[in-house]
Specification:
It is a single chain. The chain is of the alpha+beta class. The chain has three domains: 4-78 and 332-402, conserved putative lor/sdh protein from methanococcus maripaludis s2 fold (Beta Barrel); 83-94 and 250-330, Efflux pump adaptor protein, beta barrel domain (Elongation Factor Tu (Ef-tu), domain 3); 103-246, no CATH class. The chain has helices spanning 4-15, 21-38, 131-162, 168-194, 199-205, 392-402; strands at 60-61, 71-74, 76-92, 97-101, 106-111, 118-119, 124-129, 215-219, 224-229, 236-237, 243-248, 252-260, 272-277, 280-291, 301-309, 320-337, 342-343, 349-356, 359-364, 366-371, 374-379, 386-390. The protein has a six-stranded antiparallel β-barrel. It has a four-stranded antiparallel β-sheet with strand order 1-19-18-17.
Length: 403
């Protein structure tokens, strides 16, 4: 004589298509667990509110033919590298970020780039009209002309000296004039180079009778992206004081993280870091390059700087990041597969403990960190105890159904 559950399963199997009969078979096994659990003593159906103090619920029996559906594993001890979970925000890499500052004073005549433009080192960013340029070029021309004259005088004096037509002191005077003129040329030439004048422009400026252009190109000191434009056409800028652009090489960025004081002893410069953002479906990798020397009295955290690779430029300034620091500190821990851990109605983690070959009970546990598919167990289990690592969801359903 068949029981109601068997009759229901037979009816279900007759009406389901072939591809769904596997689900029916699974449900049959679950019903068998429930039926067997319900047939145990009243102690097996005692409500959860009467759980003993050792956090184990009353045992319930799983039929022998259903045990192969459960995977039983012992609690194991292993060695983990400690991981620290924290948060951070993206900042520009200050080692590869710089200001473009005008070297001369005057009004801006033309702006050549805008925010978001990628530029190369030495590329013109804007042009400014400045009397400083004409003054510097005029000084260079005067020095260059004087050097030419001093060169002719020195050569003539050397020839006259060879023919005993002048005194030695006259030749030495010509030599001194030449040296002074050469020094003046180098001084004025250096001023032009500081202004960013190219060699081609210097050669053009040496030509006599050609007017000197007051236009000067302010050039990018590094390659990267223009992340800020701080000037506008016609603006009067001051030499060495007006910042025109901010340029950053975004191939790397800094993630400014925060470490709680309890974790400071485990974090080291050089620790490898993984970073994720809810806005970007990628994992970024970085290395800790700096750990702060002070603890914030308000948050009890210390800042850490994480140099992070950003080859695609996806990380933007002030983007919020979840940070996982893989420290070099190791410890022995008890671990379980993450699939073995369930949560009760009070959101407390528990596992199913195998008390006997076919008897199981719930055991409340305390979990720690998680690495990949394993969870650290800090309280509630001992090494060697056997737990259900696969199939625990069916046990939870059966246990709750019988109650």
């Amino acid at each position: 004589m068949t029981n109601p559950q068997q009759r229901n399963f037979a009816e279900l199997q007759s009406i389901l298509p072939g591809r769904c009969r596997g689900l029916a078979l699974l449900l049959s096994g679950l019903l068998a667990i429930i039926a067997s659990s319900c047939s145990t003593s009243k102690e097996a159906t005692r409500p959860a509110s009467h759980e003993p103090e050792n956090n184990e619920a009353s045992l319930f029996v799983v039929p022998t033919n259903q045990l192969p559906h459960l995977q039983i594993l012992p609690v194991q001890k292993t060695t983990w590298a400690l991981t620290i979970h924290t948060t951070g925000t993206v900042d520009w890499d200050n080692d590869h970020t710089t200001q473009a500052i005008a070297q001369v004073s005057g009004p801006i005549t033309r702006i050549l780039v805008d925010t978001g433009t990628y530029v190369k080192a030495g590329q013109p960013l804007l042009e400014v009209s400045s009397p400083d340029i004409t003054t510097a070029f005029a000084a260079y021309r005067v020095a260059h002309n004087r050097l030419n004259l001093a060169t002719l005088t020195l050569n003539r004096s050397r020839d006259l000296l060879d023919h005993h037509a002048i005194a030695q002191k006259d030749f030495e005077g010509a030599q001194a004039d030449y040296n002074d003129a050469a020094t003046q040329v180098q001084t004025t030439l250096q001023a032009l180079r500081i202004f960013g004048i190219t060699q081609k422009e210097i050669e053009e400026g040496e030509k006599q009778g050609v007017s000197i252009s007051p236009q000067l190109a302010v050039r990018s000191p590094i390659g990267g992206m223009v992340v800020q434009k701080l000037v506008f056409p016609g603006q009067l800028i001051q030499a060495g004081a007006t910042t025109c652009f901010l340029i950053s090489n975004l191939s790397t960025v800094w993630v400014q993280g925060h470490i709680y004081e309890k974790d400071l002893s485990t974090v080291r410069v050089g620790d490898v870091v993984e970073e994720t953002s809810a806005a970007i479906p990628e994992v970024f990798h970085g290395v800790i390059s700096y750990i702060g020397a002070m603890v914030d009295p308000a948050t009890r955290t210390t800042p850490v700087r994480i140099v992070t690779s950003n080859p695609k430029g996806l990380l933007k300034k002030d983007l919020f990041m979840d940070v996982v620091i893989h420290t070099q500190t190791r410890k022995d821990v008890l671990v379980l597969p993450a699939s073995a851990v369930l949560y009760n109605a009070d959101n407390q983690p528990f596992v199913y403990l195998q008390a006997e070959a076919d008897k199981f009970a719930q055991r409340l546990i305390t979990i720690g960190t998680q690495q990949r598919n394993q969870v650290e167990i800090t309280n509630g289990l001992k090494e060697g105890e056997k737990i259900v690592s696969a199939g625990s969801l069916f046990l939870q359903f059966a246990n709750s159904y019988q109650r």
